[in-house]
Amino acid sequence: MRFDIVTLFPDCFISVLSSGLLSKALAKQIAEVHLVNPREFTTDKHRKVDDEPYGGGVGMLMKPEPIFAAVESLPILPRREVILMSPQGQTINQPLLRELATNYDQLVVICGHYEGVDDRVLNLVTREVSLGDFILTGGEIPAMALLNGVVRLLPGTVGKEESLKAESFEEGLLDFPQYTRPADFRGWKVPDVLLSGNHAEIAKWRFQQQIERTASRRPDLLETWQQERQGSREQGAGGER
Protein backbone atom coordinates (compact mmCIF):
# COMPACT_ATOMS: atom_id res chain seq x y z
CA MET A 1 0.00 0.00 0.00
CA ARG A 2 1.19 3.50 -0.81
CA PHE A 3 0.88 6.37 1.69
CA ASP A 4 1.44 9.99 0.66
CA ILE A 5 1.61 12.27 3.69
CA VAL A 6 1.17 15.96 2.88
CA THR A 7 2.74 17.81 5.80
CA LEU A 8 4.61 20.99 6.60
CA PHE A 9 6.69 19.00 9.10
CA PRO A 10 7.96 15.84 7.39
CA ASP A 11 10.75 15.44 9.96
CA CYS A 12 8.09 14.54 12.54
CA PHE A 13 7.62 11.22 10.77
CA ILE A 14 11.26 10.13 10.52
CA SER A 15 11.48 8.46 13.95
CA VAL A 16 8.06 6.82 13.58
CA LEU A 17 8.92 5.35 10.18
CA SER A 18 12.30 4.05 11.33
CA SER A 19 11.06 2.19 14.41
CA GLY A 20 9.22 -1.03 15.23
CA LEU A 21 6.72 -2.74 12.96
CA LEU A 22 6.39 0.26 10.66
CA SER A 23 10.09 0.12 9.86
CA LYS A 24 9.87 -3.62 9.18
CA ALA A 25 6.78 -3.20 6.98
CA LEU A 26 8.58 -0.58 4.89
CA ALA A 27 11.70 -2.75 4.62
CA LYS A 28 9.57 -5.70 3.45
CA GLN A 29 7.79 -3.39 0.96
CA ILE A 30 4.42 -4.15 2.51
CA ALA A 31 3.89 -0.40 2.55
CA GLU A 32 5.65 2.65 1.17
CA VAL A 33 5.43 6.11 2.67
CA HIS A 34 6.17 9.34 0.80
CA LEU A 35 6.40 12.64 2.65
CA VAL A 36 5.32 15.69 0.65
CA ASN A 37 5.83 19.23 1.94
CA PRO A 38 3.39 21.75 0.43
CA ARG A 39 5.94 24.48 1.07
CA GLU A 40 7.92 22.99 -1.82
CA PHE A 41 5.03 23.92 -4.12
CA THR A 42 4.78 27.62 -3.27
CA THR A 43 5.55 30.17 -5.97
CA ASP A 44 6.41 33.30 -3.97
CA LYS A 45 9.87 34.16 -2.68
CA HIS A 46 8.80 33.79 0.96
CA ARG A 47 7.36 30.29 0.34
CA LYS A 48 4.18 31.33 2.12
CA VAL A 49 1.72 28.54 2.96
CA ASP A 50 -0.68 30.43 5.24
CA ASP A 51 -2.69 33.63 5.23
CA GLU A 52 -5.29 35.55 7.24
CA PRO A 53 -8.90 34.33 7.00
CA TYR A 54 -11.41 36.39 5.05
CA GLY A 55 -13.92 38.00 7.40
CA GLY A 56 -11.38 38.31 10.20
CA GLY A 57 -10.65 36.01 13.07
CA VAL A 58 -7.82 34.70 15.17
CA GLY A 59 -4.98 32.71 13.62
CA MET A 60 -3.96 31.79 10.11
CA LEU A 61 -5.27 29.31 7.54
CA MET A 62 -3.31 27.07 5.21
CA LYS A 63 -3.65 28.37 1.65
CA PRO A 64 -5.26 26.09 -0.94
CA GLU A 65 -2.73 26.50 -3.78
CA PRO A 66 0.24 24.66 -2.20
CA ILE A 67 -1.97 21.82 -0.98
CA PHE A 68 -3.61 21.37 -4.37
CA ALA A 69 -0.23 21.46 -6.12
CA ALA A 70 1.24 18.93 -3.67
CA VAL A 71 -1.63 16.47 -4.08
CA GLU A 72 -1.81 16.92 -7.84
CA SER A 73 1.90 16.09 -8.12
CA LEU A 74 1.27 12.58 -6.80
CA PRO A 75 0.63 9.47 -8.87
CA ILE A 76 -2.95 8.19 -8.82
CA LEU A 77 -3.50 4.53 -8.02
CA PRO A 78 -6.84 2.92 -8.96
CA ARG A 79 -8.12 2.57 -5.39
CA ARG A 80 -7.21 5.89 -3.79
CA GLU A 81 -8.59 7.81 -0.83
CA VAL A 82 -7.64 11.41 -0.08
CA ILE A 83 -7.97 12.02 3.64
CA LEU A 84 -7.89 15.31 5.53
CA MET A 85 -6.98 14.94 9.20
CA SER A 86 -9.56 17.21 10.81
CA PRO A 87 -11.32 17.41 14.21
CA GLN A 88 -14.56 17.66 12.20
CA GLY A 89 -14.02 14.27 10.58
CA GLN A 90 -15.02 10.68 11.23
CA THR A 91 -13.38 9.41 14.41
CA ILE A 92 -10.73 6.73 13.90
CA ASN A 93 -11.88 3.30 15.05
CA GLN A 94 -10.96 -0.27 14.24
CA PRO A 95 -13.63 -0.80 11.53
CA LEU A 96 -12.37 2.33 9.74
CA LEU A 97 -8.76 1.13 9.89
CA ARG A 98 -9.75 -2.26 8.55
CA GLU A 99 -11.78 -0.67 5.75
CA LEU A 100 -8.83 1.46 4.68
CA ALA A 101 -6.40 -1.46 4.88
CA THR A 102 -8.71 -3.70 2.84
CA ASN A 103 -10.27 -1.46 0.22
CA TYR A 104 -7.51 0.94 -0.84
CA ASP A 105 -4.10 0.80 -2.50
CA GLN A 106 -3.21 4.43 -1.85
CA LEU A 107 -3.97 6.80 1.02
CA VAL A 108 -3.16 10.46 0.57
CA VAL A 109 -3.21 12.06 4.02
CA ILE A 110 -3.32 15.85 4.34
CA CYS A 111 -2.16 17.26 7.68
CA GLY A 112 -3.72 20.59 8.52
CA HIS A 113 -1.98 23.17 10.67
CA TYR A 114 -2.48 26.61 12.20
CA GLU A 115 -6.26 27.22 12.41
CA GLY A 116 -6.96 24.68 9.68
CA VAL A 117 -7.13 24.73 5.90
CA ASP A 118 -9.00 26.84 3.38
CA ASP A 119 -12.35 25.10 2.97
CA ARG A 120 -11.84 24.76 -0.79
CA VAL A 121 -9.30 22.03 -0.02
CA LEU A 122 -12.31 19.81 0.65
CA ASN A 123 -12.78 19.63 -3.13
CA LEU A 124 -9.69 17.41 -3.13
CA VAL A 125 -10.77 15.31 -0.18
CA THR A 126 -12.81 12.12 -0.21
CA ARG A 127 -12.90 11.65 3.57
CA GLU A 128 -12.23 13.66 6.73
CA VAL A 129 -10.81 11.74 9.68
CA SER A 130 -10.32 12.75 13.32
CA LEU A 131 -8.32 11.27 16.18
CA GLY A 132 -10.98 12.39 18.66
CA ASP A 133 -12.97 15.27 20.06
CA PHE A 134 -10.04 17.47 20.95
CA ILE A 135 -7.70 19.93 19.20
CA LEU A 136 -3.99 19.48 18.51
CA THR A 137 -1.53 21.89 16.91
CA GLY A 138 -1.61 19.99 13.63
CA GLY A 139 -2.65 16.83 11.82
CA GLU A 140 0.71 15.07 12.09
CA ILE A 141 0.04 13.08 15.27
CA PRO A 142 -3.41 11.91 14.06
CA ALA A 143 -1.83 10.99 10.71
CA MET A 144 0.79 8.89 12.50
CA ALA A 145 -1.95 7.07 14.39
CA LEU A 146 -3.85 6.41 11.16
CA LEU A 147 -0.69 5.21 9.41
CA ASN A 148 0.24 2.89 12.26
CA GLY A 149 -3.25 1.47 12.60
CA VAL A 150 -3.61 0.71 8.88
CA VAL A 151 -0.12 -0.68 8.26
CA ARG A 152 -0.31 -3.18 11.12
CA LEU A 153 -3.41 -4.68 9.48
CA LEU A 154 -1.69 -5.24 6.14
CA PRO A 155 -0.80 -8.90 5.48
CA GLY A 156 2.75 -9.68 6.55
CA THR A 157 3.22 -6.81 9.01
CA VAL A 158 2.29 -8.73 12.15
CA GLY A 159 4.04 -12.10 12.50
CA LYS A 160 1.00 -14.02 13.73
CA GLU A 161 -1.96 -12.60 11.85
CA GLU A 162 -4.40 -14.62 13.95
CA SER A 163 -3.42 -12.38 16.88
CA LEU A 164 -5.11 -9.48 15.09
CA LYS A 165 -8.45 -11.26 15.38
CA ALA A 166 -8.30 -11.47 19.18
CA GLU A 167 -7.86 -7.82 20.07
CA SER A 168 -9.92 -5.06 21.58
CA PHE A 169 -12.60 -3.75 19.18
CA GLU A 170 -12.10 -6.47 16.54
CA GLU A 171 -15.18 -8.39 17.72
CA GLY A 172 -16.92 -5.45 19.33
CA LEU A 173 -15.58 -6.17 22.83
CA LEU A 174 -12.48 -5.12 24.73
CA ASP A 175 -9.65 -7.64 24.98
CA PHE A 176 -9.41 -10.11 27.87
CA PRO A 177 -6.63 -9.73 30.50
CA GLN A 178 -3.40 -11.49 29.62
CA TYR A 179 -0.45 -12.68 31.71
CA THR A 180 3.05 -14.06 31.27
CA ARG A 181 5.76 -15.41 33.60
CA PRO A 182 6.17 -15.32 36.55
CA ALA A 183 2.95 -16.97 37.71
CA ASP A 184 3.22 -15.09 41.03
CA PHE A 185 4.50 -11.51 41.02
CA ARG A 186 4.45 -9.65 44.34
CA GLY A 187 1.50 -11.71 45.45
CA TRP A 188 -0.51 -11.08 42.28
CA LYS A 189 -1.15 -14.50 40.82
CA VAL A 190 -2.11 -15.59 37.35
CA PRO A 191 -5.69 -16.99 37.39
CA ASP A 192 -5.66 -20.74 37.90
CA VAL A 193 -7.71 -21.40 34.78
CA LEU A 194 -4.88 -20.10 32.58
CA LEU A 195 -2.51 -22.64 34.13
CA SER A 196 -4.95 -25.55 33.80
CA GLY A 197 -4.25 -26.49 30.18
CA ASN A 198 -8.01 -26.82 29.63
CA HIS A 199 -8.44 -24.83 26.43
CA ALA A 200 -12.24 -24.95 26.47
CA GLU A 201 -12.35 -23.50 29.98
CA ILE A 202 -9.72 -20.91 29.10
CA ALA A 203 -11.77 -19.79 26.08
CA LYS A 204 -14.90 -19.57 28.25
CA TRP A 205 -13.04 -17.56 30.91
CA ARG A 206 -11.58 -15.18 28.37
CA PHE A 207 -14.95 -14.52 26.76
CA GLN A 208 -16.53 -13.82 30.14
CA GLN A 209 -13.67 -11.48 30.99
CA GLN A 210 -14.22 -9.60 27.72
CA ILE A 211 -17.86 -9.04 28.59
CA GLU A 212 -17.10 -7.96 32.17
CA ARG A 213 -14.26 -5.66 31.17
CA THR A 214 -16.30 -4.05 28.41
CA ALA A 215 -19.25 -3.58 30.77
CA SER A 216 -17.10 -1.80 33.35
CA ARG A 217 -14.93 0.28 31.01
CA ARG A 218 -16.97 0.82 27.85
CA PRO A 219 -20.67 0.12 28.48
CA ASP A 220 -21.47 1.88 25.20
CA LEU A 221 -19.52 -0.78 23.30
CA LEU A 222 -21.25 -3.57 25.19
CA GLU A 223 -24.67 -2.16 24.36
CA THR A 224 -23.77 -1.97 20.66
CA TRP A 225 -22.37 -5.51 20.73
CA GLN A 226 -25.51 -6.86 22.40
CA GLN A 227 -27.75 -5.12 19.88
CA GLU A 228 -25.77 -6.47 16.93
CA ARG A 229 -25.77 -9.95 18.41
CA GLN A 230 -29.53 -9.82 18.95
CA GLY A 231 -30.00 -8.61 15.38
CA SER A 232 -27.91 -11.51 14.04
CA ARG A 233 -30.00 -13.99 16.04
CA GLU A 234 -33.23 -12.53 14.72
CA GLN A 235 -31.97 -12.70 11.14
CA GLY A 236 -30.92 -16.29 11.65
CA ALA A 237 -34.26 -17.22 13.11
CA GLY A 238 -36.02 -15.53 10.20
CA GLY A 239 -33.99 -17.51 7.70
CA GLU A 240 -35.05 -20.82 9.25
CA ARG A 241 -38.74 -20.27 8.72
Q: What this model shows, in words?
A:
This protein has about 240 residues and is of the alpha/beta class. The chain has two domains: about 1-150, SPOUT methyltransferase, trefoil knot domain (Alpha/beta knot), CATH 3.40.1280.10; about 170-240, tRNA(m1g37)methyltransferase, domain 2 (Trp Operon Repressor, Chain A, Orthogonal Bundle), CATH 1.10.1270.20. It has eight helices and nine strands. It has a five-stranded parallel sheet with strand order 2-1-6-5-7. Strand 5, helix 4 (about 95-105) and strand 6 form a beta-alpha-beta unit. Helix 4 (about 95-105) packs across helix 5 and helix 7 (about 200-215) packs across helix 8. The longest helix is centred in the last third of the chain and has 21 residues, at about 220-240.
Overview features:
9 strands; 241 residues; 5-stranded parallel beta sheet; alpha/beta; Trp Operon Repressor, Chain A; single chain; two-stranded antiparallel ribbon; 2 domains; Alpha/beta knot; elongated
What is the ordering of alpha helices and beta strands?
Answer: EHHEEEHEHEEHEEHHH
Global morphology: elongated
Largest sheet: 5 strands, parallel
What is the count of helical runs? 8
CATH T-level topology of the largest domain? Alpha/beta knot
Radius of gyration: 22 Å
Structural domains: how many: 2
> From the 3D coordinates, which CATH architecture of the largest domain would you assign?
3-Layer(aba) Sandwich
Distance between the termini: 45 Å
Name the CATH homologous superfamily of the largest domain. Answer: SPOUT methyltransferase, trefoil knot domain
**Strand composition percent:** 15-25%
Number of strands: 9
Provide the structure class.
Answer: alpha/beta
Poorly predicted residue ranges: none
- The helix content is 25-40%
Strand order of the largest sheet: 2-1-6-5-7
The CATH class of the largest domain turns out to be Alpha Beta
